[in-house]
Amino acid sequence: MGLDKEKILKDFQIRHLFDEQQATRGQDIEHLWHEFYHLYKIMCQKSLTDEEIDQFEADAKQWVRDFCHPTIGNLNSSNQQEGMYLRTDVTLYMHVFVQYVPQFMQYLKQKGIVLRHFSTSSIEKKNHQQVRLFFGGITMGGGKSKKSVIHDILCYEN
Is the pTM above the cut of 0.85? Predict the structure, then answer.
Protein backbone atom coordinates (compact mmCIF):
# COMPACT_ATOMS: atom_id res chain seq x y z
CA MET A 1 0.00 0.00 0.00
CA GLY A 2 1.32 3.43 -0.86
CA LEU A 3 2.11 5.98 1.83
CA ASP A 4 -0.84 8.20 0.85
CA LYS A 5 -3.32 5.33 1.11
CA GLU A 6 -1.80 4.21 4.39
CA LYS A 7 -2.08 7.72 5.83
CA ILE A 8 -5.74 7.92 4.84
CA LEU A 9 -6.40 4.50 6.33
CA LYS A 10 -4.59 5.37 9.55
CA ASP A 11 -6.24 8.76 10.04
CA PHE A 12 -9.63 7.99 8.48
CA GLN A 13 -12.31 10.14 10.13
CA ILE A 14 -15.87 10.16 8.94
CA ARG A 15 -18.00 10.62 12.06
CA HIS A 16 -18.26 14.39 11.52
CA LEU A 17 -20.14 13.75 8.25
CA PHE A 18 -23.08 12.18 10.11
CA ASP A 19 -25.81 14.05 11.95
CA GLU A 20 -26.52 13.38 15.64
CA GLN A 21 -28.99 10.59 14.90
CA GLN A 22 -26.42 8.78 12.77
CA ALA A 23 -23.35 9.59 14.90
CA THR A 24 -22.90 6.01 16.09
CA ARG A 25 -22.90 4.81 12.47
CA GLY A 26 -20.02 7.15 11.70
CA GLN A 27 -18.16 5.86 14.75
CA ASP A 28 -18.82 2.26 13.68
CA ILE A 29 -17.49 2.93 10.17
CA GLU A 30 -14.39 4.59 11.60
CA HIS A 31 -13.93 1.61 13.91
CA LEU A 32 -14.01 -0.76 10.90
CA TRP A 33 -11.35 1.28 9.10
CA HIS A 34 -9.13 1.54 12.17
CA GLU A 35 -9.39 -2.19 12.85
CA PHE A 36 -8.51 -2.91 9.22
CA TYR A 37 -5.47 -0.65 9.59
CA HIS A 38 -4.46 -2.59 12.71
CA LEU A 39 -4.73 -5.88 10.76
CA TYR A 40 -2.81 -4.38 7.84
CA LYS A 41 0.04 -3.34 10.15
CA ILE A 42 0.25 -6.90 11.50
CA MET A 43 0.55 -8.26 7.95
CA CYS A 44 3.44 -5.85 7.32
CA GLN A 45 5.52 -6.92 10.31
CA LYS A 46 9.01 -8.30 9.71
CA SER A 47 8.29 -11.39 11.78
CA LEU A 48 5.30 -12.94 13.52
CA THR A 49 4.89 -15.44 16.32
CA ASP A 50 2.31 -18.22 16.23
CA GLU A 51 0.35 -16.34 18.90
CA GLU A 52 0.33 -13.16 16.80
CA ILE A 53 -0.94 -15.10 13.79
CA ASP A 54 -3.66 -16.71 15.92
CA GLN A 55 -4.65 -13.29 17.27
CA PHE A 56 -4.66 -11.89 13.71
CA GLU A 57 -7.08 -14.65 12.68
CA ALA A 58 -9.38 -13.97 15.64
CA ASP A 59 -9.27 -10.20 15.03
CA ALA A 60 -9.92 -10.61 11.28
CA LYS A 61 -12.96 -12.79 11.96
CA GLN A 62 -14.24 -10.24 14.47
CA TRP A 63 -13.69 -7.51 11.88
CA VAL A 64 -15.99 -9.28 9.42
CA ARG A 65 -18.55 -9.93 12.18
CA ASP A 66 -18.48 -6.20 12.98
CA PHE A 67 -18.85 -5.45 9.26
CA CYS A 68 -21.93 -7.70 9.03
CA HIS A 69 -23.52 -6.52 12.28
CA PRO A 70 -27.27 -6.83 11.55
CA THR A 71 -30.00 -4.32 12.33
CA ILE A 72 -31.66 -5.23 15.62
CA GLY A 73 -35.24 -4.45 16.64
CA ASN A 74 -38.29 -3.39 14.68
CA LEU A 75 -37.66 -1.32 11.57
CA ASN A 76 -38.42 2.40 11.90
CA SER A 77 -39.13 2.11 15.62
CA SER A 78 -37.45 3.70 18.62
CA ASN A 79 -35.92 0.36 19.65
CA GLN A 80 -34.21 -0.19 16.29
CA GLN A 81 -30.42 -0.42 16.41
CA GLU A 82 -29.11 0.08 12.90
CA GLY A 83 -26.61 -2.49 11.73
CA MET A 84 -23.65 -2.04 9.45
CA TYR A 85 -23.70 -4.01 6.21
CA LEU A 86 -25.36 -7.17 4.92
CA ARG A 87 -23.63 -10.53 4.71
CA THR A 88 -24.05 -10.30 0.95
CA ASP A 89 -21.80 -7.22 1.03
CA VAL A 90 -18.83 -9.34 2.11
CA THR A 91 -16.48 -9.57 -0.86
CA LEU A 92 -14.30 -12.44 -2.00
CA TYR A 93 -11.28 -10.40 -0.90
CA MET A 94 -12.70 -10.18 2.63
CA HIS A 95 -13.40 -13.92 2.67
CA VAL A 96 -9.82 -14.70 1.63
CA PHE A 97 -8.50 -12.14 4.12
CA VAL A 98 -10.25 -13.88 7.01
CA GLN A 99 -10.20 -17.53 5.98
CA TYR A 100 -6.89 -17.94 4.14
CA VAL A 101 -4.45 -15.15 4.97
CA PRO A 102 -3.80 -16.54 8.48
CA GLN A 103 -3.05 -19.93 6.88
CA PHE A 104 -0.67 -18.27 4.41
CA MET A 105 1.02 -16.43 7.27
CA GLN A 106 1.52 -19.70 9.17
CA TYR A 107 2.83 -21.51 6.08
CA LEU A 108 5.20 -18.69 5.17
CA LYS A 109 6.46 -18.50 8.76
CA GLN A 110 7.51 -22.15 8.50
CA LYS A 111 9.50 -21.24 5.37
CA GLY A 112 11.10 -18.21 7.02
CA ILE A 113 9.18 -15.75 4.83
CA VAL A 114 6.60 -13.15 5.77
CA LEU A 115 3.53 -11.93 3.92
CA ARG A 116 4.90 -8.39 3.60
CA HIS A 117 7.22 -9.61 0.82
CA PHE A 118 4.24 -10.17 -1.48
CA SER A 119 2.11 -7.69 -3.37
CA THR A 120 -0.86 -8.14 -5.67
CA SER A 121 -0.40 -4.76 -7.33
CA SER A 122 1.23 -6.28 -10.42
CA ILE A 123 -1.64 -8.78 -10.75
CA GLU A 124 -4.24 -6.03 -10.31
CA LYS A 125 -2.44 -3.85 -12.85
CA LYS A 126 -2.23 -6.71 -15.37
CA ASN A 127 -5.93 -7.47 -14.88
CA HIS A 128 -6.78 -3.79 -15.40
CA GLN A 129 -4.70 -3.68 -18.60
CA GLN A 130 -6.27 -6.85 -19.99
CA VAL A 131 -9.81 -5.65 -19.31
CA ARG A 132 -9.01 -2.30 -20.88
CA LEU A 133 -7.38 -3.79 -23.99
CA PHE A 134 -9.90 -6.55 -24.55
CA PHE A 135 -13.10 -4.68 -23.77
CA GLY A 136 -12.03 -1.18 -24.74
CA GLY A 137 -12.71 0.30 -21.33
CA ILE A 138 -12.24 -0.14 -17.63
CA THR A 139 -14.58 -1.77 -15.15
CA MET A 140 -15.44 1.63 -13.68
CA GLY A 141 -16.51 3.20 -16.97
CA GLY A 142 -17.90 2.13 -20.29
CA GLY A 143 -16.62 -0.37 -22.80
CA LYS A 144 -16.82 -0.60 -26.59
CA SER A 145 -20.58 -0.85 -26.41
CA LYS A 146 -22.77 1.53 -24.48
CA LYS A 147 -23.05 -1.05 -21.70
CA SER A 148 -20.62 -1.40 -18.80
CA VAL A 149 -17.46 -3.46 -19.15
CA ILE A 150 -18.79 -5.80 -16.45
CA HIS A 151 -21.76 -6.53 -18.74
CA ASP A 152 -19.37 -7.11 -21.68
CA ILE A 153 -17.27 -9.51 -19.59
CA LEU A 154 -20.30 -11.50 -18.45
CA CYS A 155 -21.65 -11.71 -22.01
CA TYR A 156 -18.27 -12.83 -23.35
CA GLU A 157 -17.74 -15.46 -20.65
CA ASN A 158 -21.26 -16.85 -20.87
Answer: no
